[in-house]
Design a protein that fits this description.
The protein is α+β, with helices and mostly antiparallel strands. It has two domains: 148 residues, no CATH class; 99 residues, LytTr DNA-binding domain (OB fold (Dihydrolipoamide Acetyltransferase, E2P)), CATH 2.40.50. Helix content is 56%, strand content 17%. It contains nine helices and eight strands. A hairpin with a 2-residue loop joins strand 6 and strand 7. The radius of gyration is 23 Å and the shape is elongated. InterPro entries: LytTR_DNA-bd_dom, LytTR_TM.
Amino acid sequence: MDHSFMQSTLRELRLFIRSPRFWGTFAVVILIFAVSGPYGTSERMTAGQRLGYWLVIQAAAWSIAILCSVIAEVLLRRHIASMFWRMMLGAVAAALPIGYVLSLIDFIFDGTGHSMQSGLQRAFFAVPLCALFCLLTYMAMNERIKEVVATSGSTPRPPSILDRVKPQNRGELLRLSVQDHYTEVVTSLGRELVLLRFADALRETGGTAGLQVHRSHWIADAHVERLKRDNGKLLILTRDGFEIPVSRSYAAEVRRHFG
């Protein structure tokens, strides 16, 4: 696998890892299964055992389905125009490994179900569930995934603002900040002050995916580690350890964009 494939795959997987909506849905599904005890688990397991059982089951199934959907989405871009159908093919293909993993989990928990036939049976019943999972995932996250796809080309044009910095500092654009009458340009190779209005600097970020989060700060999507709160103030923690303040007027958009 080439570097661009791995990079695109990891970027899309990070969308799921960073999404509170995804983790919230995951938690709700586990609680529903643990409380209702379907497939006879309410009869043969205690409440604590059911919680542990369904946590393992759902974590395994969701992980495989997400991984297969993302891999298919990246691999089939040149062959299938629709992102939805790329993801759907990956999700349906995930049913086979999911069937055998679930069969193995059952064997570990109660000593039953681990065979070639049981794995195929579980894979068959997993197909519609995988399709439903893909549909819900696409509805919830397709806009974010499209943003990643749009910026993941193999040879993107560097933002024009990099032409203003020294050659040794022309790395990946990470963030912009106001410094008096200057704009500080921070890249993966260094930082430099440029005599340029901040508004003009924002127009020269080109196709770099990012967001203005404060009247004095812009940050690239790829440079965001996570959001945090400090005494009621919303901050962005960058991958190099800096904390960028978020203005109240930008807070809702920042939470929606990076949440």
